[in-house]
DNA sequence: CAGTATCCAAAAGGATACTG
DNA sequence: CAGTATCCTTTTGGATACTG
Protein backbone atom coordinates (compact mmCIF):
# COMPACT_ATOMS: atom_id res chain seq x y z
CA UNK A 1 0.00 0.00 0.00
CA UNK A 2 2.94 2.35 0.05
CA UNK A 3 3.61 4.95 -2.56
CA UNK A 4 6.07 5.36 -5.37
CA UNK A 5 8.65 8.11 -5.48
CA UNK A 6 7.55 9.84 -8.64
CA UNK A 7 4.07 10.82 -9.71
CA UNK A 8 3.35 13.67 -12.07
CA UNK A 9 -0.38 14.10 -11.56
CA UNK A 10 -1.48 13.97 -7.95
CA UNK A 11 -4.43 11.65 -7.60
CA UNK A 12 -5.53 10.13 -4.32
CA UNK A 13 -7.30 7.44 -6.31
CA UNK A 14 -4.02 6.25 -7.80
CA UNK A 15 -2.49 3.50 -5.70
CA UNK A 16 1.06 4.58 -6.41
CA UNK A 17 0.63 8.30 -5.77
CA UNK A 18 2.44 9.63 -2.70
CA UNK A 19 -0.63 11.54 -1.69
CA UNK A 20 -2.31 8.25 -0.84
CA UNK A 21 -0.06 8.03 2.19
CA UNK A 22 -0.90 11.56 3.24
CA UNK A 23 -4.60 10.83 2.92
CA UNK A 24 -4.13 7.70 4.98
CA UNK A 25 -2.39 9.73 7.67
CA UNK A 26 -5.03 12.46 7.85
CA UNK A 27 -8.08 10.28 7.28
CA UNK A 28 -7.71 8.86 10.74
CA UNK A 29 -9.71 9.57 13.87
CA UNK A 30 -6.81 10.40 16.17
CA UNK A 31 -4.94 12.46 13.60
CA UNK A 32 -8.02 14.51 12.82
CA UNK A 33 -8.68 15.12 16.50
CA UNK A 34 -5.06 15.93 17.33
CA UNK A 35 -4.74 18.47 14.54
CA UNK A 36 -7.98 20.09 15.59
CA UNK A 37 -6.80 20.30 19.18
CA UNK A 38 -3.82 22.33 18.02
CA UNK A 39 -5.77 24.85 15.98
CA UNK A 40 -5.78 27.46 18.72
CA UNK A 41 -2.07 27.36 19.39
CA UNK A 42 0.56 25.13 20.98
CA UNK A 43 -0.46 22.45 23.44
CA UNK A 44 1.39 20.13 25.77
CA UNK A 45 1.25 16.36 25.68
CA UNK A 46 -0.90 16.18 28.79
CA UNK A 47 -3.32 18.75 27.44
CA UNK A 48 -3.74 16.82 24.22
CA UNK A 49 -4.17 13.59 26.14
CA UNK A 50 -6.93 15.16 28.21
CA UNK A 51 -8.68 16.65 25.21
CA UNK A 52 -8.60 13.51 23.08
CA UNK A 53 -10.73 11.57 25.52
CA UNK A 54 -9.90 7.91 25.65
CA UNK A 55 -6.57 8.03 23.85
CA UNK A 56 -3.77 6.05 25.44
CA UNK A 57 -0.35 7.63 25.85
CA UNK A 58 1.13 5.12 23.41
CA UNK A 59 -1.33 5.86 20.65
CA UNK A 60 -1.15 9.61 21.16
CA UNK A 61 2.62 9.49 21.04
CA UNK A 62 2.57 7.46 17.81
CA UNK A 63 0.05 9.79 16.23
CA UNK A 64 2.05 12.91 17.09
CA UNK A 65 5.29 11.39 15.84
CA UNK A 66 3.77 10.48 12.50
CA UNK A 67 2.35 13.97 12.10
CA UNK A 68 5.69 15.47 12.99
CA UNK A 69 7.50 13.23 10.48
CA UNK A 70 5.20 14.45 7.73
CA UNK A 71 5.80 18.05 8.65
CA UNK A 72 2.35 18.84 9.97
CA UNK A 73 3.47 19.81 13.45
CA UNK A 74 6.57 20.56 15.47
CA UNK A 75 7.62 19.12 18.80
CA UNK A 76 9.54 21.41 21.13
CA UNK A 77 10.94 20.09 24.43
CA UNK A 78 11.92 22.67 27.06
CA UNK A 79 14.86 21.81 29.33
CA UNK A 80 12.97 22.29 32.56
CA UNK A 81 12.05 20.26 35.59
CA UNK A 82 9.46 18.92 35.37
CA UNK A 83 9.82 18.51 31.60
CA UNK A 84 7.55 20.46 29.29
CA UNK A 85 7.00 19.64 25.63
CA UNK A 86 4.91 21.67 23.27
CA UNK A 87 3.31 20.61 20.02
CA UNK A 88 2.40 23.20 17.44
CA UNK A 89 0.99 23.10 13.93
CA UNK A 90 3.24 24.10 11.06
CA UNK A 91 1.92 26.12 8.13
CA UNK A 92 1.27 22.81 6.42
CA UNK A 93 -0.59 21.56 9.46
CA UNK A 94 -2.70 24.70 9.64
CA UNK A 95 -3.66 24.12 6.04
CA UNK A 96 -4.73 20.56 6.75
CA UNK A 97 -6.65 21.73 9.79
CA UNK A 98 -9.16 23.60 7.63
CA UNK A 99 -10.83 20.68 5.83
CA UNK A 100 -10.50 18.55 8.94
CA UNK A 101 -12.36 21.14 10.99
CA UNK A 102 -15.13 21.13 8.40
CA UNK A 103 -15.32 17.37 8.63
CA UNK A 104 -15.52 17.42 12.44
CA UNK A 105 -18.21 20.09 12.36
CA UNK A 106 -20.22 18.19 9.81
CA UNK A 107 -19.98 15.05 11.91
CA UNK A 108 -21.12 16.85 15.05
CA UNK A 109 -24.03 18.39 13.19
CA UNK A 110 -25.17 15.20 11.50
CA UNK A 111 -24.53 12.34 13.87
CA UNK A 112 -27.65 10.64 15.07
CA UNK A 113 -28.05 8.99 18.46
CA UNK A 114 -27.62 5.27 18.89
CA UNK B 1 -14.41 2.46 21.74
CA UNK B 2 -18.12 2.48 20.99
CA UNK B 3 -20.49 5.25 21.86
CA UNK B 4 -23.24 5.77 24.38
CA UNK B 5 -26.85 6.15 23.41
CA UNK B 6 -27.54 9.60 24.80
CA UNK B 7 -25.41 12.72 24.45
CA UNK B 8 -26.84 16.20 24.61
CA UNK B 9 -23.96 18.23 23.22
CA UNK B 10 -22.30 16.69 20.18
CA UNK B 11 -18.57 16.70 20.66
CA UNK B 12 -16.21 14.53 18.66
CA UNK B 13 -13.67 14.96 21.44
CA UNK B 14 -15.96 13.25 23.93
CA UNK B 15 -15.30 9.53 24.09
CA UNK B 16 -18.94 8.64 24.72
CA UNK B 17 -20.48 10.81 22.04
CA UNK B 18 -22.10 8.90 19.17
CA UNK B 19 -20.45 11.22 16.69
CA UNK B 20 -17.12 9.61 17.56
CA UNK B 21 -18.24 6.54 15.66
CA UNK B 22 -19.31 8.58 12.67
CA UNK B 23 -15.95 10.34 12.63
CA UNK B 24 -14.23 6.98 12.84
CA UNK B 25 -16.25 5.76 9.87
CA UNK B 26 -15.56 8.78 7.67
CA UNK B 27 -12.00 9.43 8.78
CA UNK B 28 -10.83 6.42 6.85
CA UNK B 29 -9.01 6.21 3.56
CA UNK B 30 -11.38 3.82 1.81
CA UNK B 31 -14.52 5.52 3.06
CA UNK B 32 -13.29 8.92 1.95
CA UNK B 33 -12.39 7.58 -1.49
CA UNK B 34 -15.62 5.62 -1.91
CA UNK B 35 -17.80 8.59 -1.04
CA UNK B 36 -15.85 10.78 -3.41
CA UNK B 37 -16.24 8.23 -6.19
CA UNK B 38 -20.00 8.50 -5.84
CA UNK B 39 -20.18 12.29 -5.97
CA UNK B 40 -21.09 12.36 -9.65
CA UNK B 41 -23.92 9.89 -9.42
CA UNK B 42 -24.55 6.17 -8.94
CA UNK B 43 -21.80 3.70 -9.63
CA UNK B 44 -21.58 -0.07 -9.84
CA UNK B 45 -19.41 -2.28 -7.68
CA UNK B 46 -16.97 -2.94 -10.48
CA UNK B 47 -16.67 0.72 -11.31
CA UNK B 48 -15.87 1.56 -7.71
CA UNK B 49 -13.40 -1.26 -7.53
CA UNK B 50 -11.61 0.06 -10.61
CA UNK B 51 -11.59 3.64 -9.35
CA UNK B 52 -10.32 2.84 -5.86
CA UNK B 53 -7.07 1.44 -7.16
CA UNK B 54 -5.71 -1.35 -5.06
CA UNK B 55 -8.82 -2.08 -3.02
CA UNK B 56 -9.71 -5.74 -2.66
CA UNK B 57 -13.29 -6.87 -3.22
CA UNK B 58 -13.59 -7.87 0.42
CA UNK B 59 -12.51 -4.52 1.78
CA UNK B 60 -14.61 -2.57 -0.70
CA UNK B 61 -17.64 -4.65 0.20
CA UNK B 62 -17.09 -4.06 3.91
CA UNK B 63 -16.62 -0.35 3.39
CA UNK B 64 -19.79 -0.01 1.34
CA UNK B 65 -21.84 -2.01 3.82
CA UNK B 66 -20.72 0.15 6.72
CA UNK B 67 -21.56 3.30 4.81
CA UNK B 68 -24.94 1.87 3.90
CA UNK B 69 -25.67 0.93 7.52
CA UNK B 70 -25.00 4.48 8.61
CA UNK B 71 -27.29 5.86 5.95
CA UNK B 72 -24.65 7.51 3.78
CA UNK B 73 -25.44 5.53 0.66
CA UNK B 74 -27.98 3.16 -0.80
CA UNK B 75 -27.43 -0.18 -2.46
CA UNK B 76 -29.79 -1.12 -5.27
CA UNK B 77 -29.61 -4.56 -6.91
CA UNK B 78 -31.32 -4.97 -10.27
CA UNK B 79 -32.82 -8.38 -11.07
CA UNK B 80 -30.94 -8.86 -14.29
CA UNK B 81 -28.52 -11.33 -15.77
CA UNK B 82 -25.71 -10.62 -15.33
CA UNK B 83 -26.47 -8.95 -12.02
CA UNK B 84 -26.12 -5.22 -11.68
CA UNK B 85 -25.91 -3.36 -8.38
CA UNK B 86 -25.76 0.36 -8.01
CA UNK B 87 -24.51 2.41 -5.11
CA UNK B 88 -25.65 5.97 -4.66
CA UNK B 89 -25.12 8.65 -2.06
CA UNK B 90 -28.06 9.65 0.12
CA UNK B 91 -28.64 13.28 1.08
CA UNK B 92 -26.64 12.56 4.19
CA UNK B 93 -23.85 11.09 2.09
CA UNK B 94 -23.83 14.07 -0.22
CA UNK B 95 -23.41 16.27 2.82
CA UNK B 96 -20.47 14.26 4.06
CA UNK B 97 -18.96 14.33 0.58
CA UNK B 98 -18.36 18.08 0.78
CA UNK B 99 -15.74 18.21 3.55
CA UNK B 100 -14.23 14.95 2.32
CA UNK B 101 -13.76 16.42 -1.15
CA UNK B 102 -12.01 19.41 0.40
CA UNK B 103 -9.73 17.08 2.29
CA UNK B 104 -8.87 15.07 -0.83
CA UNK B 105 -8.18 18.23 -2.79
CA UNK B 106 -5.97 19.62 -0.06
CA UNK B 107 -4.05 16.35 0.07
CA UNK B 108 -3.51 16.32 -3.69
CA UNK B 109 -2.35 19.92 -3.62
CA UNK B 110 0.00 19.54 -0.67
CA UNK B 111 1.51 16.07 -0.84
CA UNK B 112 5.21 16.07 -1.45
CA UNK B 113 7.08 13.36 -3.33
CA UNK B 114 8.80 10.54 -1.51
C1' DC C 1 -21.04 -9.24 -12.47
C1' DA C 2 -21.02 -8.85 -7.72
C1' DG C 3 -19.85 -10.31 -4.45
C1' DT C 4 -18.58 -14.12 -0.32
C1' DA C 5 -15.24 -17.46 1.91
C1' DT C 6 -10.91 -18.37 3.58
C1' DC C 7 -6.50 -17.59 5.24
C1' DC C 8 -3.06 -14.76 6.75
C1' DA C 9 -0.01 -10.61 7.79
C1' DA C 10 0.30 -6.24 9.52
C1' DA C 11 -1.20 -2.36 11.83
C1' DA C 12 -4.03 -0.08 15.11
C1' DG C 13 -5.68 0.20 19.45
C1' DG C 14 -5.97 -0.47 24.59
C1' DA C 15 -4.33 -1.34 29.59
C1' DT C 16 -1.01 -0.88 32.61
C1' DA C 17 3.43 -0.34 34.60
C1' DC C 18 7.52 1.91 34.56
C1' DT C 19 11.45 5.65 33.76
C1' DG C 20 14.37 10.07 32.87
C1' DC D 1 5.48 15.63 33.15
C1' DA D 2 6.14 13.21 29.12
C1' DG D 3 6.61 9.81 27.50
C1' DT D 4 8.42 4.37 26.63
C1' DA D 5 7.97 -0.67 27.31
C1' DT D 6 5.28 -4.55 27.36
C1' DC D 7 1.57 -7.48 26.43
C1' DC D 8 -2.45 -8.47 24.34
C1' DT D 9 -6.82 -8.03 21.48
C1' DT D 10 -9.11 -6.22 17.63
C1' DT D 11 -9.34 -4.29 13.24
C1' DT D 12 -7.74 -3.57 8.79
C1' DG D 13 -5.97 -4.95 4.81
C1' DG D 14 -4.44 -8.06 1.02
C1' DA D 15 -4.41 -12.39 -2.05
C1' DT D 16 -6.89 -15.68 -3.98
C1' DA D 17 -10.45 -18.87 -5.00
C1' DC D 18 -15.03 -19.72 -5.41
C1' DT D 19 -20.43 -19.03 -6.11
C1' DG D 20 -25.34 -17.33 -7.38
CATH class of chain A: Mainly Alpha
Count interface residues per chain for the largest interface. A-B, 51 and 50 residues
Oligomer: homodimer
What is the rounded Rg of chain A?
16 Å
What count of helical segments of chain A does DSSP give?
A: 5
Low-confidence parts of chain A: 1-5
Secondary structure layout:
The structure is a homodimer.
Chain A: H1 19-26, H2 29-37, E1 43-44, H3 45-51, H4 57-69, E2 73-78, E3 84-89, H5 91-110
Antiparallel strand pairs in A: 1-3, 2-3
Helix pairs in contact in A: 2-5
Chain A binds a DNA duplex (20 and 20 nucleotides) through helix 3 and helix 4.
Write a short abstract of this structure.
Two copies of one chain form a homodimer. Chain A is an alpha+beta fold and 114 residues long.
Task: Note down, in words, how this protein is organized.
Chains A, B: GO terms for molecular function: DNA binding. Chains A, B: InterPro entries: ArsR-like_HTH, HTH_HxlR, WH-like_DNA-bd_sf, WH_DNA-bd_sf. Chains A, B: This is DNA-binding HxlR family transcriptional regulator. Chains A, B: Pfam families: HxlR. Two copies of one chain form a homodimer. With 114 residues, chain A is of the alpha+beta class. Chain A has a single domain (28-110), classed as Winged helix-like DNA-binding domain superfamily/Winged helix DNA-binding domain (Arc Repressor Mutant, subunit A), CATH 1.10.10.10. Chain A is built from five helices and three strands; from the N terminus they run H-H-E-H-H-E-E-H. A three-stranded antiparallel β-sheet of chain A has the order 1-3-2. In chain A, helix 2 (29-37) packs across helix 5. The longest helix of chain A has 20 residues, at 91-110. Chain A is globular, with a radius of gyration of 16 Å. Chain A binds a DNA duplex (20 and 20 nucleotides) through residues 1, 28, 30, 44-46, 49, 54-62, 77, 80-85.
Amino acid sequence: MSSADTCATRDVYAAMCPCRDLLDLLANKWSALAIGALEDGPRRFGQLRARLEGVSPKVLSQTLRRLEEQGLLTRTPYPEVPPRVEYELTDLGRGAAVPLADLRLWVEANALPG
